[in-house]
Write a structure and sequence with these properties.
107 residues; two-stranded antiparallel ribbon; 11 strands
Length: 107
């Protein structure tokens, strides 16, 4: 049986507190990956383009499709698409859209 969303999407949580190192620079104490739910990915083999928030055209690498009611991903957020423990896809969100039948994220 074919699953509509066979993979899991994770985003990098940078909300952990920062601390100062010996030079006085602020560094993140730690980051963790948060499971955002089920997804599937599709490579952009046709070199399709999207318009970004600033109006520039962008040839995206892949599109990630997720159920419509889930986590909202923001521009610039680092994500990973995993199949079990294997990372299938890694990148930064360029655009996110929540529609009636699914949510989409472009990398």
């Amino acid at each position: 049986m074919v699953k509509q969303y066979p993979y899991r999407i994770f985003y990098k949580n940078l909300s952990s507190p920062s601390s100062q190192n010996g030079d006085g620079d602020f560094v993140n104490v730690g980051t963790n990956w948060v499971d955002a739910g089920k997804c599937r990915d599709e490579a952009n083999t046709g070199k399709s383009m999207i318009n970004l928030l600033d109006g520039k055209a962008y040839i995206f690498d892949a599109i990630i499709l997720m159920p419509p009611k889930g986590v909202s991903l923001i521009h610039g957020m680092e994500i990973e698409v995993r199949e079990g423990n294997e990372v299938r896809l890694k990148g930064k969100i360029q655009r996110f859209s929540r529609d009636k039948f699914h949510s989409r994220a472009w990398l």
